[in-house]
Design brief:
mainly alpha, about 0% strand, single chain
């Protein structure tokens, strides 16, 4: 291996080790989302620890817990839901790259703005549509505040909490795609 190849390999390793950053068009909102990602990464590690504890409690001490399974599902569900927002902040959401990469740079800027606008409308619609589910998840028929619970022996308020969290993430996604729409439209108009 030549010196230049070693240098390129070292540069790619250094680049790989850098912490991920939100794309520039995501703005301050995207940078905040990027920083919050560590919380949900830690939640996945905590859920792995809980699973390990549950296996030990069940198979070594013959004393299974009533809370481990639901807690692990809740933590991973939160991480999964947040993952959509995190990916959007990095502008790595799903697109048909084969077709997208075939479009020249100039028209691609307009396409970026259009894609962001469609995503903004879609996530805004999903946030609006989820409101009726939120109402049932956080209020009793008598109008008192009470988070929907799982109905298990432990009965935590995880289902209601997840529905509220999903609603908040959909609003945040709508805001992130609004920021993208504005930034990409400005880039398209500037060139």
């Amino acid at each position: 291996m030549s010196g230049a190849e070693k240098s390129n390999d070292h540069a790619s390793i250094v680049e790989h080790k850098k912490p991920p950053q939100a794309c520039a068009e995501a703005g301050l909102f995207g940078r905040i989302i990027n920083k919050a990602g560590i919380v949900f990464s830690v939640a996945i590690l905590i859920s792995a620890g809980i699973l390990f504890l549950e296996v030990c409690m069940r198979y070594i001490f013959n004393s299974p817990t009533t809370w481990a399974h639901e807690t692990v599902v809740f933590l991973n569900a939160c991480a999964f839901i947040f993952g959509g927002l995190y990916v959007a902040a990095h502008n790595k959401h799903i697109r048909v790259v084969l077709l997208y990469s075939m479009i020249p740079e100039g028209p691609r800027r307009y396409l970026d703005a259009a894609i962001s606008f469609v995503c903004m409308v879609s996530t805004g619609f999903f946030a609006f549509a989820s409101w009726s589910s939120i109402q049932r998840a956080i209020w009793t028929p008598q109008g008192e505040f009470h988070l929907e619970t799982s109905g298990s022996a432990w009965n935590p308020p995880f289902p209601g909490t997840l529905k509220v969290f999903l609603f908040v993430i959909m609003i945040a996604l709508t805001i992130q795609f609004l920021i993208y729409t504005i930034k990409f439209a400005q880039k398209a108009g500037a060139k």
